[in-house]
Amino acid sequence: MKENNVSLKCEPDWDLDSEKREHYITFIVNQLTLEEKTDMIHGAGFFKTKGVERLGIPPLTMSDGPMGVRNEFYNDKWVPIGHSDDYVSYAPSNSALAATWNPQLAYKCGRNLGEEARGRGKDVILAPGINIKRDPLCGRNFEYMSEDPYIVETLVVPFINGVQENDVAACVKHFALNCQETNRLYVDTIVDKRTLHELYLKGFRAAVCKAHSYSIMNAYNKVNGSHCSENKELLDDILRDKWEYDGVVISDWGSVHTTKESASTSMDIEMSVTPDFDNYYYARPLIKAVNKGEVSEEVVDKKVKNILRLMYRLKMIGPEATDRKQGIYSNMEHWQDALDTARESVVLLKNEDAILPISPDRIKPYRMICEDKAGSKDDKLVKNNAAPVKRKIAVIGHNAEHNHADGGGSAEIKAIYEISPLLGLKKALGGNVDIQYAVGYYVPGDKDVNEVNWQEASLERQVMEQEGNEKNNKKLRKEIEKNRQKLLEEACELARTADEVIYIGGLNHDYDVEGRDRHDMVLPYGQDELINALLDINPDTVVVMVAGSPVQMPWLQRVKALVWCYYSGMETGDALADILLGKVNPSGKLPETFPVNIEDTVTYKNGQSGKEDVITCEEGIFTGYRYYEKEHIKPAYTFGYGLSYTSFEISSITVKLCDDKNAAQAIALVSCELKNTGDMYGADVIQCYVGDVECSVDRPIKELAAYQKVFLEPGESKKVQLYLYKDAFEFYDVKKDDFVIEPGQFRVYVGDSLDNCEAAGYITV
Question: Do the beta carbons of residue 277 and residue 41 sit within 8 Å?
Fold first, then answer.
């Protein structure tokens, strides 16, 4: 038995170089018993590990964090404590962040999350989620960024940098290929090596090799036959050996299935969902395995060293432990950043006849002009000087008033506030406009919008699946349908009497949610019927979709104004009002393709959408826009698409090999002139795509290689320079087991969306 009274205090002149750090860590490990070591590598609570008090080693505390630091739970039961000190900023989702195409906002979102996590005493924040969006039906797509790995790379690096500058570890997730929720614990994703590296791992490689994420979380699923929690190819060959990762690998909660197999890989910390912490695979079973010689104690030592290294970096131990940042709680700066991000995330998809913005002249009060010539002059004088008549705006749809912070699974938080679109419009317009609201459609569980008791109405989701009294089922269906029809008629009646109609619908966290996928892309709750009815009444109805994934829009050709709003956080309402009323010019661009219907998607074609046992990525690298271009399928909206209230002109495009000494390692330089030719301040995103003219392997027609968001005053011009590095031209060579550039000619495209870019020139590499 080792001595238990060893002091680990560092000398005052102890510096932070890696050699002394590793010596210090080894020194600590040598003082630990096997039991103390295993205590450090498994959960001792739902969101923390156990420390070693006698040596001054603290526990490691964690929190969910996709859209803010999650509220506090009891240590051994999944019940919120219910205190008032865990309200936080509700940040825009990763899908909303990606729609901004703005890395600076990614940094701010990460920084604010790190500050609030540290303020709450957290060491690890379980974010960001960066899985590639392969299937539009995936329930967690709202937590992820894009279908394109380059977008992910450019946003995840500043996000992680922002988090970790606050002495909090980011935990990038889910490593890897967690692209569906259906049977996520056991589904086996079969993928070839090129596709794995070129598409699904690029974001993780950037997180590890560029941002140096201090921790990483494995996925639930299997990859090529082996669970990610014990997958040697992912955890050892790629993460530790190829990428030289020395951070901590944390299991997703309940994703570890074995002791020996998981412990033998680079999985460091086992977390789970049950309170029998001492019986976790890395607890008593691991001690037994070590004592039997089935697992070497050196394997355990490596895991403990990784954890201690993390603690050292976070200033939990070591010479700078007294200088750790204290963090802050939610504050006005965070709220402003949330508003800025939400504003830039809104995507204007359609705006025929300049329906938007809704100008002040369209909604200012007006006087009733008296035409009664039979009355006296005094009567006319009174009537013509009466109080002005308010314009009426009908706001219709459940998402106009619904709050989203408390849903989505591990993404739920206690928001310090959340401004709904309805509240945002009322705040912006004040009392001079008559804003009236109708929910329009029935949502199970909303007691305030229906007369059917929830205990009865909840059966709607089960009524087709459960056995029971058919007579009672028919009665319930009849009541629900009657209630739906009533809400639809109320909405239509309101629309008939309104000067402007704004519909705000889409999805919610019954559909965009952890643990299950959608069955189709159809809007739920009969919204298509309602939207068509509103368009019959007022063809100028503005339609706003609030959702985390694409939906089918059969009314698309009829609607004149269409706005897409991802889950945009606490300031969604103010941001949306600013866009609709023209205070802010929309500048969001889609970070994913919106297909017309599910039948057009690659997962549907391959018969792989929502499969429960095995997913085979037969399409290889051809997902998202790569697939639609290859198969000549026209989507509803292309990758990178988004309109503005102003207009832009791209000119003077040049493409040349790079000789700029200030851009080391850049291969090519693409330049252009961007001018705001309209009359409103706004931003456009210059997008550069590259296509290999001839290659020994099948490559996409275009791949995003660079982009830049540019803000311009009316009439202002700016020269834009985009540097192309080797990753813009390379592919993964399976034989060489590495990325390579095959010499030849590459076509370069420049524009402001995938379907609005022109071949600007060629580069020979």
Answer: no
